[in-house]
Automatic annotation (TrEMBL):
A Pfam family annotated for this UniProt entry: Hydrolase
Keywords associated with the record: Hydrolase, Plasmid
UniProt name for this protein: HAD-IA family hydrolase
Highest taxon of source: Bacteria
GO molecular function: hydrolase activity
């Protein structure tokens, strides 16, 4: 089968990330009972992922709900963003960049308010692909089928002629449901090998 486009997830694929443990880390540092920060802010992270709250609003809510100073909240968010951004998978990023102009390319991310600006500063993703769809900007998140359809519309390609790469099974299943050919990312070399097989 011939393909017209490839879409990649970001975190866990192009960015090598560890467990997001910033809440428990600061609970330990501040002597708070386990689950205090996470429990009081559980609704804020999904809201940020869909663009329903700004980052400043989320910071203020965290400060108010957990009774933390603005300075401590700033430290928590610095750690959160460091964990969120991880480190670049250079080999996989270069492989994706090399698919242009033969194929349309894009990124499709369940994100958090502020991600585009920080990822652009860290990695310059906009120069690597034709389009980037962030959940916080469009108000839809994987595995909702509409976000895959939207990403394909923005690239002007048919989902059935698109390859999608993600490290989360639920996100891969959502892409398959709209007709995409999928790769569940486990490691760099196997993903590149699968792409090479599909695209040659």
């Amino acid at each position: 089968m011939e393909f017209d486009a490839v879409l990649f997830d970001i975190g866990g694929v192009l960015e090598v990330v560890e467990s997001m443990d910033f809440s428990s880390k600061y609970e330990d540092l501040l002597g708070l009972p386990a689950g205090t920060i996470a429990g009081h802010t559980a609704d804020l992270w999904p809201a940020g992922a869909l663009g329903l709250r700004t980052e400043d609003e989320i910071r203020r809510e965290m400060s108010s709900r957990v009774n933390l100073s603005a300075a401590v909240v700033e430290e928590i968010f610095e750690d959160m963003w460091a964990q969120y951004l991880g480190t670049a998978d250079i080999e996989l990023t270069n492989d994706l960049a090399g698919l242009r102009p033969r194929l349309r390319t894009g990124l499709l991310s369940n994100s958090f308010v502020g991600a585009r600006e920080r990822e652009e500063t860290a990695y310059g993703f906009s120069g690597l692909v034709d389009d980037i769809v962030y959940s916080h900007e469009v108000g839809i998140a994987k595995p909702d089928q509409e976000i895959y359809a939207l990403a394909c519309r923005r690239l002007d390609v048919d989902p059935t002629r698109t390859v999608f790469v993600d490290d989360a099974q639920i996100a891969v299943d959502g892409a398959a449901a709209v007709g995409m050919t999928t790769i569940l990312h486990h490691d760099t070399h196997s993903t590149i090998a699968q792409l090479d097989t599909l695209l040659t």
